[in-house]
Amino acid sequence: MRYLAVKGARVPALGFGTWALSGRGAYDATRQALELGYRHIDTAQIYGNEAEIGRALRDSSLPRAEIFLTTKVAPNNLSAAATKRSHDESLKRLALDYVDLLLIHWPNPQIPLGETLKALAEIKAAGKTRFIGVSNFTVELLREAVERHRADLLCNQVEYHPFLPQRAVLAALKRYGMILTAYAPVARGRVFKDKTLAGIGRKYGKTPGQIALRWLIEQDGVVPIPKAARREHAADNIAIFDFALSAEDRAAIDRLGAGERLVEWGGYSPDWDRE
Ligand code: NAP
Known about the structure:
Elements: E1 3-6, E2 9-12, E3 16-17, H1 23-36, E4 40-42, H2 50-60, E5 68-73, H3 80-94, E6 99-104, H4 113-125, E7 129-135, H5 139-148, E8 155-159, H6 167-175, E9 179-183, H7 195-204, H8 208-217, E10 222-224, H9 231-238, H10 247-254
Parallel strand pairs: 3-4, 4-5, 5-6, 6-7, 7-8, 8-9, 9-10
Antiparallel strand pairs: 1-2
NADP nicotinamide-adenine-dinucleotide phosphate is lined by residues 17-19, 42, 105, 135-136, 157, 183-189, 192, 209, 225-230, 233, 236-237, 263.
């Protein structure tokens, strides 16, 4: 596994997503991912799988310090009191003393951002998370968090794959010394139908998914977190550290970005940046 050094954190360059995994499926997929070499696991309060993931981490017998675990506060829990209470409940379900990264899952315009950020900073000071960050934040929201509220954030987790360029968000994150955690990095399976990615894949003996993930990890400060319930998918997704894309192939993938966004959440989706 490769690691990114950012703000004193050592972040595994590839993570494992767990959305839509529950019960035995969440446990088995997480155990499998850890066996395959993943060391960065992404969950959230609303995924309803924190207990199974905590159990998979324990049963793996890996030292706690080797794992980088992220969870997220649900948007209806963002008042100061609910942020703290709900994170205590997350820790209880995970049966852990701390997580590595705690995120605001989606912005909630009904609750002052400064209030949530202050609660997150207090959770961090209490040792219940090592780092804090945000998810689904636009450039404007990042500016408010970092410039107005002086929040010390590690990442913004947003949708990012070859069909959705994130130029504006990437530029803002670079300015703030933050990383971009890329969710839906294989575009929920759509990359496998793309002819350009397939053609590039044939040159390297790789699948379109491996080409998309390699394109992401080759960018400064970008960490994809593909989800895979199937063992062969999880194994394929981590087999991306043994080749490099040519500048020409990277440029061809850059040109795929037509702005195809797959993930929205009704009342919580912000006014997304256009490029
Ligand atoms: P994704 O990782 O792009 O796609 C997952 C889908 O692609 C699954 O159906 C999986 O199949 C399939 N797949 C994965 N690897 C494959 C491979 N090598 N070959 C063929 N198919 C493959 O989408 P995602 O799950 O939406 O995003 C990843 C993670 O990001 C989530 O699990 C979650 O942790 C996080 N996320 C966060 C937010 C947020 O608001 N912060 C939103 C969405 C997602 P199988 O499962 O059958 O193997």
